[in-house]
Known about the structure:
The chain is an alpha/beta fold and 223 residues long. The protein is built from ten helices and six strands, in the order E-H-H-H-H-H-E-H-E-H-E-H-E-H-E-H. The chain folds into two domains: 4-16 and 87-220, HAD superfamily/HAD-like (Rossmann fold), CATH 3.40.50.1000; 18-84, DNA polymerase, domain 1, CATH 1.10.150. It has helices at 18-31, 38-44, 49-57, 63-84, 92-101, 114-124, 147-156, 170-178, 194-199, 214-220, and strands at 4-8, 104-109, 132-134, 163-167, 182-186, 204-206. The chain has a six-stranded parallel sheet with strand order 3-2-1-4-5-6, sandwiched between helices. Helix 1 (18-31) packs across helix 4 and helix 5 (92-101) crosses helix 10 (214-220). Bound molecules: magnesium ion.
Amino acid sequence: MLPWAVLWDMDGTLVDTAELHFSAWRECCARQGRDFTEADFQATFGRRNPEILRFLLGDHLTDQEVASLGEAKEQLYRAEARKTGIELLPGARNLLTSAREHGAFQAIGSSAPRANLDLILELTDIGQYLGTTVGMEDTSRGKPDPEVFLIGAQRLGVNPSRCVVMEDAVAGIQAASAGGMRSVAIRHVGHHPVEALQMAGATLVVECLSELNGPILAGLLNL
Ligand SMILES: [Mg+2]
């Protein structure tokens, strides 16, 4: 059988880090004299830091300022994550195991910075399932651009048409569609409307990862 792959979004799909990110952004904005609201969070979640910071603080920011503000925010986030710990979402470990047993190569394709990916791999011990992880530093365009998933597929040596993307966000599903990939939308964390996820091109929409297994994902590719 030709290789096939499962490409995982991380935040909101494998782990729920929303609270931690919200606190870190609020503190980061407070230091700049700006509020950070629930609406700001909704408007920016899942995007890369350079785009988020320019959205929050203005287009005038230099690349240097974006880099240092972004790093400060991520340090706040990682310190809090280490303190409180991070758990995989229900069904995640079983599905990683089942997909591997069914022959899938697996990767993470995330907007998160490398240090956050490494921290979550460390805290959840899922590195053993993954052939590669693609993060913020590996891409120049955020989702809904397909770049992050195309790089993941390329590194695994799997054709995009044989990849299933696991995503919680509309932009991530759009990225999968734009990359010529199948996708599963998981509503457990984000609670995005089913219609919005389907409009974005989701092949399948589920409430929880525990509804899935390796054969179901392979079936989405008609394997
Ligand atoms: Mg996500």
